Each structure stands twice: as structure tokens, then as C-alpha cells.
Automatic annotation (TrEMBL):
Keyword set, alphabetical order: Cell membrane, Membrane, Transmembrane, Transmembrane helix, Transport
Transmembrane spans: 12-32, 39-64, 84-100, 107-125, 137-160, 180-199, 205-221, 233-253
Protein topology in the membrane: Multi-pass membrane protein
Compartments where found: Cell membrane
Protein name, UniProt field: Probable membrane transporter protein
Protein family per UniProt: Belongs to the 4-toluene sulfonate uptake permease (TSUP) (TC 2.A.102) family.
């Protein structure tokens, strides 16, 4: 911890403040609209700390955020779903850390972006609450694939929302269950980053500042969430998914050429 504090003293103050504010704003939006905080941080964090280390920095921050959100939404967690999601997601996160430096994540983000944009049409602009039946056992393959991809690119939260929505989760239960799943996967991501030599003191320092901002954002966001109706929440969820998808497509369109 002392090494981290010493490193923070060598980083420009404006840089630390920028990361803190970015984390806070991203996770206020994330709490209100059902996720996407990590994804919103990808362009900001990449510009501040560099593209190469942005994914582990974001995952460290997200882990800290999820710990606080887990406490805030503990009573709304659907544990019966978590037991299907977490085991396979842990395997996916570990394998992704192994190939972290060997795989181009541009194609992943481009395909995910296209899927997210399509959700506005799948849900008929918010007029329907479900587009397909999502059995709980279906979260076994979903957990593996999403954890694998998010470990590589640093955040794919919104892509899980359609699966949770089609499993019948809304508002607090969606956020709570999603947070519990992400928290347990986050533990493995941190351990695997460390095991494969990816996690450094510098990454921990950046992640700590970003994560502290995210914790404050969760607290503020929960207050706003209480005053939002289920239909409003669904619309905001769709808007977030479409915006996130468009950002991912624009940022990775170059892989097509």
C-alpha cells in the first residue's frame, strides 16, 4: 500500500482528479441505467493511462465499485441466478487473462457494439419487457463468454442487460444480481492479472483512484434510482446500450479496413 501511495505522489494532481471524477460520473450513470460504467470509462481511461493498461485499470476500479454496490444492494440479489453464472464466468476470466496480450480485442468490441445497437429494435423502443425466454441455466455459457470478453477489453456490462431483463429482473434486482456476479468474477480477474504478471503497482494506483470515484458514484446513483419507475428504467437501459454500442463501433470500425 505504501508503494501505491508513493506512486500517487508522482502523478500530476489534475490526472488523479480527472480519474476520480470520471469514475464518479460513470458509475452514477451506471447505477441509474443498469450498468455500463466500465464501458464508459474505456475511452477516458485509455486517453489518461494508455490503451495498453486501461483494461486492468478499469477492472481494478470496477472491483472496488462492485464491493460497495454489493453492500448497497445486498437484499435485492437473486442468488439462484448467481450460482449458474459465476462458476463458468470464473473460468472465462482466467483464460482471458492468459491470452490478454496476445489477442486483438477490436473485433470483439465491434461485434458487441452491433449487438447493443440492435437491442433498441429487439425491445421495440422499450414497449416490450422481454424478447426471449432466458432460463437460469442459460447463464452458464453466457457467464463464460462475457467474463472472457470483458477481461480482455475492460468492460462489457451493457451486453448482459438483455439476458437479465429476459430472465425477469428489473431495477434493483437487476443491478444487485449483476453486481454480485461481477464481484466474484472480479476477484478472479485480479488474481489472474497478478498471476500472469499483468497487475503492477502503477495499475493498482490508477485503479484505486478510479475506484474511489466509482464508489461515490454508486452512493449518489442509488438515491436517484429509487425515484425512477420500471418503465423509465427500461428506457434508460436501452438508451445506454445503444449509446455504448455506437461508441464501440466508432472506436473499432478501423478493424474492417
Amino acid at each position: 500500500m505504501l508503494f501505491v501511495l508513493d506512486l500517487l505522489q508522482t502523478i500530476p494532481t489534475w490526472h488523479l482528479v480527472g480519474l476520480f471524477i470520471a469514475g464518479m460520473v460513470a458509475f452514477i450513470i451506471s447505477t441509474i441505467s443498469g450498468g455500463g460504467g466500465a464501458m464508459l470509462l474505456i475511452p477516458v481511461t485509455s486517453s489518461m493511462v494508455g490503451t495498453a493498461i486501461a483494461p486492468p485499470v478499469i477492472n481494478v476500479a470496477t472491483f472496488l465499485s462492485n464491493a460497495s454496490r454489493l453492500y448497497l444492494f445486498w437484499h435485492d440479489i437473486d442468488w439462484s441466478l448467481t450460482k449458474y453464472y459465476v462458476p463458468s464466468a470464473i473460468v472465462g476470466a482466467w483464460l482471458a487473462a492468459l491470452v490478454f496480450s496476445r489477442l486483438d480485442a477490436g473485433w470483439i468490441q465491434l461485434l458487441v457494439g452491433a449487438f447493443l445497437v440492435s437491442t433498441i429494435f429487439q425491445y421495440k423502443f422499450g414497449k416490450v419487457s422481454k424478447t426471449f425466454d432466458m432460463p437460469k441455466v442459460g447463464f452458464v455459457p453466457v457467464g463464460f463468454v462475457i467474463a472472457f470478453m470483458s477481461t480482455l477489453v475492460g468492460g462489457l456490462g451493457p451486453i448482459l442487460n438483455p439476458f437479465y431483463m429476459n430472465a425477469g429482473l428489473e431495477k434493483e434486482s437487476l443491478i444487485a444480481t449483476k453486481t454480485a456476479n461481477s464481484f466474484f468474477v472480479g476477484i478472479v480477474q485480479i488474481i489472474s492479472y497478478t498471476f500472469f504478471g499483468i497487475l503492477t503497482v502503477k495499475i493498482c494506483a490508477y485503479g484505486l483512484v478510479l475506484g474511489l470515484g466509482a464508489v461515490i458514484g454508486n452512493i449518489i446513483g442509488k438515491r436517484f434510482l429509487a425515484g425512477i419507475s420500471i418503465s423509465q428504467f427500461r428506457i434508460m437501459l436501452l438508451i445506454l446500450m445503444v449509446i455504448s454500442g455506437l461508441i464501440m463501433i466508432v472506436r473499432n470500425i478501423n478493424v474492417l479496413f
